[in-house]
Amino acid sequence: MAFSMIPLLNGERAVVLFFITSVLVSLPFSLLYHGLALSLLTLSALCIEIQAESSNSLHQFNTRPGASSGILLGAITLPAVMLAKMIQLTRAFSSNHTGLEEIETWTMHFWSTSTCCLSVLMLLWNAMHESDVVSQTRFHRLWRLKLGLGCKILYGVVCYSSLATMYPNVVRMALMSSWILCHGLVASKLIQHLLSTFPSCASIGEALLVTAGLVLYFGDMLGCTIAKMLGALSSSELVSFQYMMNRSEISPIIQGLLLGLLLCPVVFKHLHRWECIVNTENSEAKKYFEIRRSMIFFSVLGFISIVVVPSWMMLVHEFDTHPFLWVISFTFSEPVKRLSLCVYWLSLICASILRFYNISRSSKIERILLRKYYHLMAVLMFLPALIFQPRFLNLAFGAALAVFLALEIIRVWRIWPLGEPVHQFMNAFTDHRDSEFLIVSHFSLLLGCALPIWMSSGYNDRPLAPFAGILSLGIGDTMASVVGHKYGVLRWSKTGKKTIEGTAAGITSVLAACSILLPLLASTGYILTERWLSLLLAVTVSGLLEAYTAQLDNAFIPLVFYSLLCL
């Protein structure tokens, strides 16, 4: 099969390959197997993306209109993040700053996300060729089967070799291998469910990123729950789950809240199957029906939030008190700083919402520029908190994400009396990347700022790494859009809207922000280890990715920037 050089070397793929190369050349010898697995994943994703986009052979997946498939970027982002974190922890382990348990945990994360991505790639590989099975010869079908099987076997050998060096015990090795394999099986099912349930809401790459993230996140929750129920805290076979359960109280609180909110619509749907029999032509009957429907929803939400979620939290973590009482106690442990921060956040949110919502209704300003003001607001909200109250910010991110998720569920289900007002308000800030069914931009902005901070909660020898989302989205992306829109002339491509002037402004603004932030961090006690050449590389690569990618940049750019900062 011949591929021309033009589609092989388009801008997005070139930047992604350079990013992967930067990660691979930074690998110590102890992570050789992980580098081989990431290389195999990259080559597989590249070949599948090129074939899919050149032949339109994945048309059966109802993806977001106007976006490229994004298979390569979606397949390598999370594994590359995990590997970059492992490189950082390897440095720490060699200098006795961290223990083996943390490295084992992130090793499991790497193999779990890599297996998720490879499983989805094999699903796409089979789907591409099944859609064109009539025109295939017998030789071609055999070649396809052998190539797919060879890729799986090679990946399995590399994964087994890596795990064998870490888990010499046969029982432990079998347990961890089975757990990793389950991640791949679940991911291949989940991405099909997501693309069919939320049509035209995401590209394949975006859906792949979400799928791998959800499977990893809730797989950790399930693993901790099983380990706790089996009384395996003292068992060496489950040391990675033991490490996760020994983390701070904030992690299970956030996980429990998100799980409860995701369970709520599932339970509500099964309790409300009789909805279709109501006579919607009768306005009075419809009104009472909406009220009953709303009461059922909020009853389910309240029961899960008050009973189910706290019970799970107390199961997996030894709280001294009720989790919600712990949150109150944690907040009032430094009342002046934390309550002042809450007042500052609420004032900023109220003022910005009133101002920008009125502008969006009466002004002809483009929504993409209007949304960038919220990126700047994220800088004003999160930057001071990250410097002076990082633990409280971790909890606040979880609370904000829970509120966003609850409001989106209410909006999608049109739960009376909030559903329609929330829908009208959110529509004022949507753009072409949001569908009529699901609005995801605010989620991606919040998670883009939060994920680098959450992943830096353990050992971190790169002070700028937690700021990756705030810098790349709040400053770089904002300046690139504003300058590119007002002054941009030279475009990166004939069909795209991104300009060279905008990209240069974004890169320059992030470097300027870093030059101000680094001395400030040094004055608060941080030990600075960043090298300006490495920082320039990280900022430039993330800026070029923002310029070239057609994917949801809020989701990918912070993770790429974070990975490069960790190297």
Automatic annotation (TrEMBL):
Protein's cellular compartments: Endoplasmic reticulum membrane
Predominant subcellular localization, coarse grouping: endoplasmic reticulum
GO cellular component term, pick one: endoplasmic reticulum membrane
Domain of life from the UniProt record: Eukaryota
Transmembrane residue ranges: 15-48, 69-88, 108-128, 149-167, 207-230, 296-316, 336-357, 369-389, 395-416, 437-457, 463-483, 504-528
Keywords: Endoplasmic reticulum, Kinase, Membrane, Transferase, Transmembrane, Transmembrane helix
Entry EC no(s): 2.7.1.108
Bilayer topology: Multi-pass membrane protein
Entry-linked InterPro entries: Polypren_kinase (IPR032974)
Keyword Transmembrane tagged: yes
Ranges in coiled-coil conformation: none
Top EC class, one word: transferase
Entry GO MF terms: dolichol kinase activity
Biological process terms in GO annotation: dolichyl monophosphate biosynthetic process
Family: Belongs to the polyprenol kinase family.
UniProt name for this protein: dolichol kinase
Source organism (scientific name): Cucurbita moschata (Winter crookneck squash)
Lineage, broadest ranks: Eukaryota, Viridiplantae, Streptophyta, Embryophyta, Tracheophyta
